[in-house]
Amino acid sequence: MSETVKNEETEASNQTYKELHRPASEFETREEYLDHELKIMKPKRWGLNLPGRDFRFEWEDLVPAIAGTIGITVMYSAVMAAWASGLTEKWDHINLGAEFAIQVVRVEMLIPALLFCIISSGFINPRANLAGNHGPMIPLIGAIALAGAHPLALAILLGIFGLLLSYVKGGSRLVNLTSSGVAGGLLVFLGFMGAKSQITSLFDWAGGLQSKHALDYSLGYVAFFILLVNVILYAYLAKVGKRWLAIPLCSIAAIALAFGLGAGLDLQFVTEPGIPNLNPVYWWGSTEQGWQLGLPNMAHFIASLPFAILAVAMWSPDFLGHRIFQELNYPKGTDKVLMDVDDTMTTCSLRQIVGTAVGGGNITSSWGTYMIPAAIAKRPIPAGAILLGLLCIIVAVLGYPMDVTVWRPVMSIALLVGVFLPLLEAGMQMVKDTQNSQAAGICIFAAFVANPVLAWALTMLLDNNGLIGDKERAKTLSIADRLIIPGLAFTICLIAMLAVGMIKGIPAFL
Prior knowledge:
This protein has 510 residues and is mainly alpha-helical.
């Protein structure tokens, strides 16, 4: 490296983002401008970051903001409906219906959006990804409720465990110990299974339209044409380098096709404008209102313990997938804007406790439906986080947009093109040689046998000891990195899953 280049780099390192910023008109392409923005940003961790001085708003930030709003409304609705169903089945004195679920969704969209999207990830620490929803835990919520767990007890335990893990930098250590092969296999499995689930749900929705509306003909073809058109649209956007527009454009296409093919009758606007009760005493103060559970007791904490351990154990592979998207889409020299896994874990832990304390019921994790589109659009966290927080507040207050975002064509297409197809693509990009493909293949196989979290822990242990994958890589690792940390991760995941009955064929022992 010449002395001149070194001097230029030193000078640039001493300059602020505002000083290094250049208008988009000075660049030949929009992509070059966005790459330059990523390279010059120097966000402060746990300090004040201001628009104009430390980051800028670009119209590309609207894409992850819209995508994240659609995704989180869908996820929150699924979570609260599962809690309501499980608790009503578990306790004789509890009867929670659709109105309860809607109000809790609104609580989760208002307070956390303000505190942890706008203030935290927007202004205080743009290195921490937004705290969203823990998608893999949604199928377990019914079992959590039936086990006698309490949402507030679960949130407190999850938050404490998360803060402890982030304090010892455990999240980033686990991410660094996960090879490209293992990570690629994990992403391929999650992408494939998620895509399969949404396609099945879309066909089930279309198939049920005939009886629901007493039609003389079947509308099952609606799902096929929605998927066909969106596959073509997604492929075109990928070809022209505009894949980050997939969620809004494909969602609009799904709405237009559903109405054009006669399925519009299924969309009903029932959620009126309003603000939920934000008094924690209303939600947790007695067994006659809110969650109708009262404050948690020791039995509630014991029942919640294995699920809290499991949720935190599942954070690392979740965070890993989101950071990988940034690394794959951002140019070199942008380490300062990559999400910090431990800071994200801290934010998720605090958001879990605060959000549930004011009446929520979400189980949180890194916000994938925001981060994945943001990475594809080559945008850093802060500006989109602020826009997303504002959109969530607007949607929660207006009410009616919630009905659109949870409508099956919008929900399935948004998740397909915004999360699961990019997951598949990223996973395949990471599997570049025979050694990586071996680790990826075993990770996928183990995920089918058990589940993706246990598969990640097992293949990480095997890979770091040279039993699969790159044998030379194993020789460079310390005993702690080869045996102790991966072994503990596998043991904790296995015990937690055995406790709650997540291993097929083995009943829960707790």
